Amino acid sequence: MPLLIKTGDNMNLVIAGYGFVGKAHHKVLKSHYDISIVDPAINDKLVSDYDADMLIISVATPQRDDGACDMKHVFEVLRDTHSNIPVLIKSTISLEGWDQIRKDFPKHKITFSPEYLRAATAEIDFVNTKSLEFGGDNAKLWMDVMHKVFPDAKFKELDPRVLILNKYARNSFLATKVSWFNQLHDLCEAYNVDYQAVADIVSSDHRIGLSHTDVTPNRGFGGHCFPKDTSALIHTAKNQNVDMSVLIEAVEYNNKIRS
Ligand SMILES: NC(=O)c1ccc[n+]([C@@H]2O[C@H](COP(=O)([O-])OP(=O)(O)OC[C@H]3O[C@@H](n4cnc5c(N)ncnc54)[C@H](O)[C@@H]3O)[C@@H](O)[C@H]2O)c1
Fold it and tell me: Nearest to residue 143, comparing CAs of 155, 158, 131?
């Protein structure tokens, strides 16, 4: 199927969703591509208003009332996108949502690539991208697009459903690690043992690592992604009656201690 890709540097790349992820992409990609933005928070443009060659979707995917990943903004953007335009989804999306996308947009050429940047250091994290994974219809094409921007990065093609679950698994594992170290902290306090000294030596084991061992004054985990992503994974597991009791307990404990 012919793609609407221009060669050369005048390719028009639309970014839908101009938050942490969209802004970081804009900042880095703008020296390589012509970029247009679609985001109701900053303009009233739609993807269909632009002569788009490619589209990156980085819209919000918040927590629905029932705990699932709310993908309504992803669907809004896809409905307004011609099926000839290659789409890269950088938003965090659920397995059920991906399956629905494939059903609702069978002609669209859609690739998923998980994003790992942190909100607090979004642009620096993105500039320092060392590896990127792609899965879906046009993985090779998006690797070419990103290779121009990150010539030294490593690229991998994988099943999109593997990549989707991988993103939730990472955030859920790290959230569980935070809960675990908060409990270890309380055990140390109860026995008058220096928590930091314990955490330092435990985390010096390379199998465990230092990240997510801090016990902050707010206690537990919060932020932009861990609460909604843990909730979404629990919802996905419940849909298939899969036991996710370790993660459920980590989240319930977090809700108790988090101020
Ligand atoms: N923030 C992070 O650290 C981080 C890291 C990795 C992945 N992600 C994922 O990336 C996605 C975006 O996260 P973010 O932190 O940039 O979100 P954000 O809330 O900062 O920004 C999302 C933007 O999407 C816009 N939007 C909503 N509906 C839209 C529509 N129909 N068309 C165009 N724009 C629309 C909103 O106005 C908002 O500006 C989420 O799925 C998130 O889970 C975020």
Answer: 155
Contact between residue 111 and residue 86 where contact means Cβ atoms under 8 Å apart: yes
**pLDDT score for 259:** 84
Closest ligand 1 atom number to CA of residue 116: 6
Helix (H, G, I), strand (E, B) or coil at 33: coil
- Tell me the β-bridge partners of 36: 14
Write down the mean pLDDT value for the chain. 95
Is residue 114 in contact with ligand 1, taking CB distance under 6 Å?
Answer: no
Q: In what order do the strands lie in the sheet with 12-16?
A: 34-38, 12-16, 54-57, 87-89, 110-112, 131-136, 154-157
pLDDT value at position 192? Answer: 98
Query: Which phi and psi (to 5°) does residue 65 adopt?
Result: -55, -35
Task: Give the E-state strand segments of 39-83 in sequence order.
Answer: 54-57
User: How many angstroms is it from 224 CA to the middle of ligand 1?
Assistant: 10
pLDDT < 70 positions in the chain: 1-9
Q: What's the CA-to-centroid distance between 113 and ligand 1, angstroms?
A: 14
Q: How far apart are CA 87 and CA 57, in angstroms?
A: 7
CA 187 to chain centre: 33
List the one residue out of 255, 235, 254, 234 whose CA is nearest residue 244. Answer: 234
The closest-lying atom of ligand 1 relative to the alpha carbon of residue 118 is 3
Q: Beta strands 131-136 and 110-112: pairing type?
A: antiparallel
- Per-residue pLDDT at 9: 58
Eight-class DSSP state of 119: G
pLDDT at position 8, please?
Answer: 47
